[in-house]
Amino acid sequence: MTNTGRLLISCPDRPGIVASLAHFLYERNANITHSDQHSSDPSGGVFFMRIQFEMEGLTERFDALQREFADVAKRFEMKWRMERAAKLKRLAVLVSREEHCLLELIWQQRSGDLKAEIAMVIGNHKSLGQVAEQYNLPFYHVDVKANNKSEAEKRIQELISGNVDAIILARYMQILSSDFIKPWEYRIINIHHSFLPAFVGAKPYQQAYDRGVKLIGATAHYVTTDLDAGPIIEQDVHRVDHRHDPEDLRRIGRQIERVVLARAVSWHVEDKILVLGNKTVVFA
Amino acid sequence: MTNTGRLLISCPDRPGIVASLAHFLYERNANITHSDQHSSDPSGGVFFMRIQFEMEGLTERFDALQREFADVAKRFEMKWRMERAAKLKRLAVLVSREEHCLLELIWQQRSGDLKAEIAMVIGNHKSLGQVAEQYNLPFYHVDVKANNKSEAEKRIQELISGNVDAIILARYMQILSSDFIKPWEYRIINIHHSFLPAFVGAKPYQQAYDRGVKLIGATAHYVTTDLDAGPIIEQDVHRVDHRHDPEDLRRIGRQIERVVLARAVSWHVEDKILVLGNKTVVFA
Amino acid sequence: MTNTGRLLISCPDRPGIVASLAHFLYERNANITHSDQHSSDPSGGVFFMRIQFEMEGLTERFDALQREFADVAKRFEMKWRMERAAKLKRLAVLVSREEHCLLELIWQQRSGDLKAEIAMVIGNHKSLGQVAEQYNLPFYHVDVKANNKSEAEKRIQELISGNVDAIILARYMQILSSDFIKPWEYRIINIHHSFLPAFVGAKPYQQAYDRGVKLIGATAHYVTTDLDAGPIIEQDVHRVDHRHDPEDLRRIGRQIERVVLARAVSWHVEDKILVLGNKTVVFA
Amino acid sequence: MTNTGRLLISCPDRPGIVASLAHFLYERNANITHSDQHSSDPSGGVFFMRIQFEMEGLTERFDALQREFADVAKRFEMKWRMERAAKLKRLAVLVSREEHCLLELIWQQRSGDLKAEIAMVIGNHKSLGQVAEQYNLPFYHVDVKANNKSEAEKRIQELISGNVDAIILARYMQILSSDFIKPWEYRIINIHHSFLPAFVGAKPYQQAYDRGVKLIGATAHYVTTDLDAGPIIEQDVHRVDHRHDPEDLRRIGRQIERVVLARAVSWHVEDKILVLGNKTVVFA
User: Fold this and answer.
1) D257: part of which helix (H) or strand (E)?
2) pLDDT by residue (tens digit) across B234-243?
3) Pick from A137, A195, A194: which is nearest to A164 by CA?
4) I need a surface site. Which of A63, B179, C132, C144 has the fewest CB within 10 A?
């Protein structure tokens, strides 16, 4: 996949965008292997596109290609980025005590299903240090207490700065501050253990049990400064019934959480997600 | 199914309930063909049971059987009811303008999947009169306006009184008053066009669209005096994505609504639902 | 949708196809609102594309547009067709005794979900004549017996010739001859009541019951001269268990059949399906 | 769960079975906490029942309880077994090179979701020795070649004899001989990587790809001497489309396989499965 490039754009919709993009790549002997597009509104909306292409010598030509594309982008007022598939994204996985989401990410990464590098695991408890160690992943314990929250976040910031491309909250039970979140906009993914927007906040499985729902779910979303309200990336549900107590719901829920999170992370690292307002466009 | 009986009970959990029920039926030459039980809490909770049995000459023996069972029931402080499968429940289907839920109920009734009789269709608009007529169902138009609500409900009450066993709100867009609802407790089923408790209230598909969820759903529930908060009977969901606009969500939603409602009504008329507090026990 | 056009192409994959198509449409002031592409194999495979576009005055310009496009098509050795969304496809629905698939198509057509016209219903039994009549659809009874098969097919051929665009076998229990099928290649859709290729042939629900499967399904496919082996368009399944007897499987199956068939027909009439060898590419 | 017992029976159906069982347990102060029953045919079929009960001092009374129950069992010609929930079943997991199913079983066992002990891992390749070691599980490498098959099976037999209660084939790519299988009837579980009976035999994902199915699946079943034809315990499917090549199918399939296998093993070790002929009754 050395020669595989990805181009993501969004811009005001108007005629000629696809023609210009296709022409730009064709002139440079790039072959479009996948492309997806979406218009938020055919008349006067926002146009989104993801193009995957193959180009000989992409690694060497990549900087030049970006400079050249900037001209096209300017003409159409595009927000855009170009990525090389071969440059795997590096992840910091933040955890607390529950291991299932971390294990899933590790397992999928090892099997080649998750095309990323797990750069480090950071825990506010020591519990999962052993899991990280078992798989030769650096583990850092950053204790978070009521009175040291900003120091703890500063410590995390130091660990990840310049070292990772995205932060995955794999059942990390701390709320990050707005100051921490802002520079990482749309690069922090959280797994919430309910079908949002049902059961926002604490103890969602207990809430689900109390309401007597027949399906429970999990939601992976980008973290914004508005708790549990960031753009939803993926959701799934599982059937439950009167025989399930809150502990059963948590058990079943773990299966949904790990799968939903892994799917969301996978799409993120393969540059398949664009954000518009508070929604995602996922070219899965 | 002339000889098929159903016994539904709930009572404080304690040893010996099953033995007593089984003994009662065995003595009377009844053969248990299905049985389901559930304890809300093994120690000191509520015990639920549904038994389906076959008994020669059930129709003739039914009244006596109920009198005799009252003794067993008293001993265990049971809430209970006994039903004959052959006595089909009669339904009043309340509608407004959308036909999909009504059509589904009619179709399933005709095909024998819904074991009930549709006694009448009542609409607060005239639009669906033709559908009812096509299938030879009595249709009554009961106009509901801001200033005639209680009269309208009185009219509905007259139409159904002594004539139906349950009321199905098949996309009926009026809110029933508490006075109307109370005597029909757990015998009115509504289909709400969202995955409750997400998107309570009006325009749930628009709400779902605005929040950018990846699954939309529908919820069938018993109607209580607390709007959209009654015991949930059944829910289901369908995957959507960024390509779907609110109109698409409504279209996909219609498919979920009709299936979820039909399933809930089917369980109700086959006496498969028990209610505990604000939850249902469904022995599907 | 008067100005909505659709262009479907398949051709040997090579650089420049997208650029040429996009340029062709851009020059003519057509705005691409949706596009989907697929390559069976990035190097040396077959390239598939479906483009939906908006163009002022499409109805008047349509013939010229097709002539002009023929040049582009020739250069890339394309198989192609261009369609106007406003020109609804006309369907002949063939039935036997079971009504559920027919009713589903009628219902979805009436609600606007199925964008087609039902030109006629043809039954080899008279049973569903009443259903067709109820919805003001022409019904023709064409009896099929062992000794009059070719005459019967000739009669059907006369009824549909020049009058319909596609044939839907909505639980039509007769096998069509190769001679009948050939001129309608990829324009006859059948619903098979199993998850193909499991349970080919007769009585699939009984076969499923005997094998003790935990999911039953249905398959919509294009009819080819090879029985039950044509390109699969859509499949779905539903969970069953030991409590379900063959009659239950048939009942549950009916729900899957009608939904799967309706989805397949919907994709067909919106020109969302391309065929490669014995497989479909569905741009749903 | 020291006091939790399970009773599984099957016998010719006739009146009085439930009453006798319930009476037997009630006399001994056992409280029935769950019960499930099924009749293969209400008149003259086979009756199946699973009862879970709580009884003070079960461990001490267990042998006597079984002796006493033998009388009841004899009267009704029951096949039966009684189990203590506290006595976890011991598993031998047989593997080849693929780790996903093994990892899933280990993970679920560690988290408490799989209520069993993994007694050992046996591989016909050395590849997964490291995984077993990491989790402190005994690993045995038993090479299987064309000319040493019976010796290899003898070696496996020695390792497991008297030491395990069930054998799990977690993507074990060898076919076991009839001689090996027979003494372990309904105690060997295999995961087949297709939706059986579609795609029996080798390379099912390639077969699925070639046929162009829209759903792929996995099947957990008891191993009998008839290859891929034993009683099905559980199945599930996942949607695929034209964009997925055989490698994608294998990747998606791995996710289904591990979940389906873990579910089947879980039901087996909790004594939730009864077998009738070539089918399972699963009281999940």
Assistant:
1) helix D246-269
2) 999 999 999 9
3) A137
4) A63
The C-alpha of A264 sits at a distance from chain B's nearest C-alpha, in angstroms, of 12
The stretches in chain C having pLDDT less than 70 are 42
Residue A172: partners with Cβ closer than 8 Å, 6 or more residues away: A94, A95, A96, A124, A190
Percent of chain B with pLDDT over 90: 89
Q: Which residues of C touch A (CB under 8 A)?
A: 15-16, 18-19, 21-23, 25-26, 29-37, 39, 42, 54
Examine the residue annotation and report whether B228 is marked as an active-site residue of this protein: yes
- Report CA-CA distances (Å) from D17 to B16, D9, D75: 16, 10, 10
Q: Is the pTM of this model over 0.80?
A: yes
Helix or strand or coil: residue B59?
helix
B211 with A280: Cβ contact below 8 A: no
In whole angstroms, what is the distance from residue D69 CA to residue D64 CA? Answer: 9
**Crossing angle for the helix pair D246-269 and D204-211, to the nearest 10 degrees:** 130
Can you tell me which residue has the tokens 């591990």? D258
| DSSP designation for B80 | E
Please state the domain extents for chain D: 4-84, 89-282
Distances in Å between the Cα of C227 and the Cα atoms of C230, C281, D195 are: 7, 21, 21
The answer to whether domain A89-282 has CATH 3.30.720.210 is no
Chains that touch A (3 or more CB pairs under 8 A): B, C, D
Catalytic pick from A13, A165, A228, A271?
A228
CA D231 from chain centre, in angstroms, equals 10
DSSP code string of D121-179: EEESSSTTHHHHHHTT--EEE----TTSHHHHHHHHHHHHTTT-SEEEESS--SPPPHH
CA distances from B208 to B119, B187, B213 (A): 35, 29, 6
CA separation for the pair C209, C214 (Å, rounded):
9
B53 backbone φψ class: left, alpha, beta (φ>0; ψ -120 to 50): beta
How many Cβ pairs closer than 8 A exist between chain A and B? Answer: 69
Indicate if the pLDDT at residue B195 is higher than 70.
Answer: yes
User: Sign of dihedral through CA atoms D176, D181, D185, D188?
Assistant: negative
Measure in Å the smallest separation between the Cα of D33 and chain B Cα atoms.
6
Q: Cα separations (Å) of C208 from A237, A241, C194? A: 27, 27, 8
Distances (CA, A) of B39 to A244, D113, D207: 11, 22, 47
Q: Is C162 exposed, middle or buried (0-12, 13-18, 19+ CB in 10 A)?
A: exposed
The one-letter amino acid code at A101 reads C
| pLDDT value at D42 more than 70 | no
Torsion of CA A217, A222, A228, A234, to 10 degrees: -20
Q: Which two tokens stand for residue D112?
A: 């408490």
Q: Is D27 exposed, middle or buried (0-12, 13-18, 19+ CB in 10 A)?
A: exposed
pLDDT level of residue D200 (50, 70, 90 thresholds):
confident
Query: Which of the listed CATH numbers 1.25.40.80, 3.40.47.10, 3.30.70.260, 3.40.50.720 matches domain D4-84?
Result: 3.30.70.260
Instruction: Write down the pLDDT at residue B201.
Output: 83
> What pLDDT is attached to residue A176?
96
C-beta atoms of D99 and A111 within 8 A: yes
